[in-house]
Amino acid sequence: MKHLLSTADLDAATATEILDIATEMASVSGREIKKLPTLRGRTVVNLFYEDSTRTRISFEAAAKRLSADVINFSAKGSSVEKGESLKDTAWTLQAMGADAVVIRHPASGAPHRLANWVTGSVLNAGDGTHEHPTQALLDAYTMRSRMGRLDGLHVAIVGDVLHSRVARSNVLLLNTLGAKVTLVGPPTLVPTDLNASVQVAYDLDAVLPQADVVMMLRVQKERMTDSYFPSAREYSRRYGLDGARLRRMPAHGIVMHPGPMNRGMEITPEVADSPRSTIVEQVTNGVSVRMACLYLLLGGAR
Amino acid sequence: MARPTTDESNAPVQQPAGPAPTKIVISAADVSRVLDRIAHQILEKTSGARDVVLMGIATRGVPIARRLAERIHAFEGVQVPVGILDITLYRDDLRSSSVRAVGRTEEPAGGVDGRKVILVDDVLFSGRTIRAALDALSDLGRPAAVQLAVLVDRGHRQLPIRADYVGKNIPTALSEQVKVKLVEIDGTDEVVLTTGSKGGTR
User: Fold this and answer.
1) Are the beta carbons of B102 and A21 separated by less than 8 Å?
2) What is the ipTM, given to two decimal places?
3) Residue B41, class by beta-carbon neighbours within 10 Å (0-12 exposed, 13-18 middle, 19+ buried)?
4) Residue B38: inside a domain, yes or no?
5) Is A38 an interface residue toward B (CB < 8 Å)?
6) Total number of domains constituting chain B
7) Between 20 and 30 A from A70 (CA), which of A19, B73, B154, B188?
8) Is A104 an active-site residue?
């Protein structure tokens, strides 16, 4: 594996290998010395063109736990504001000897372009409305560790599917790993041209009793350029997850959210803070999964 | 490098064209006798295996460590905790091959802090595996002392490392391979010496 750009590039064996290695990495995170010498002397650049807290910190922690050197580059306050193109920035990173570039970019496909310009590995940390593969991997890891399996699991992905790179990456990966996916949301926010084998539903209450996992998506205000739904309150009443809806789920069912949450919008505090919610676990697991990805990309001969 | 990779260890040994010069250097019965002796030596050198834990180095060090623990229990009734050490992430040659699979590391019951840790491996060769194992072990805790037990010492050390318990010293040429087979993994107990083929990779 040279780059991690899309979960569509992962076959079941590779995806499972990443999850298995992440399990080992998680045991390192539980030790007193949370560090491995594995990527000593490698340089990882975090290239973030969009604001992000948890993904950037998670990648940084993952790289540092593997002893790689980390350079953080955020577009704000950098040469990008002076008008430097992505390609010129890529060459700069190349000249500095980056072994891997972790890129977050508002334009879908930017990581794919970057992969053609640099010799190192490229990890997609979210590109536009396209993909966010490490989020999907950490979600799969969380489901597997909570539910014990992925094959045959019924996962409902609820909310703004149209703008969600998390949803897209999850659909592709969960399909590969044998889970059954239902997309739920207002018709304006569920795409119609899906290639993957998923079901689509517009009534959340009808889906909940069969769902092992409910993944709530953030309503992305920054991408709401049209009026996709009449009002936040109406959205919240039809598609928000509250305590009453949570009780419609099977007793073993779990609630996930990629964060950051709009409490009171797509999820109520009662649900977000309940023991059925895996939101904090997802953050913890993110570091282990990203360590596994960095190891697979950088741990062998170049 | 002394460690076989995981894929390599399950695959049949590649033979060069022509007659395959392999020789059984330790038979099944001798493997058992050798382990009996090492278990007795451990008991003797550690005054009854008090505060001792065995750490098997994956892959073949693990069943050897378990067998030694069974024998120590049978001889003197002492329960010695067994752990697993996977040294993949500590290797110094990660960049010389494609990405290697990562195995499980399991701390022994009660941890390693303040205990006498005996590392257990199948073959001692360059010593680099043991170097990596010492690094891995120090990340798990701070043992009171560390010793090393191996089934076979084939020489050709590249680091200042020696074993405290040796099943058998087998003088070898660099071009030869020493392959330890164990019932738990390979279905049979024996140690085989192969001449030629891969030249000093083991």
Assistant:
1) yes
2) 0.84
3) middle
4) yes
5) yes
6) 1
7) A19
8) yes
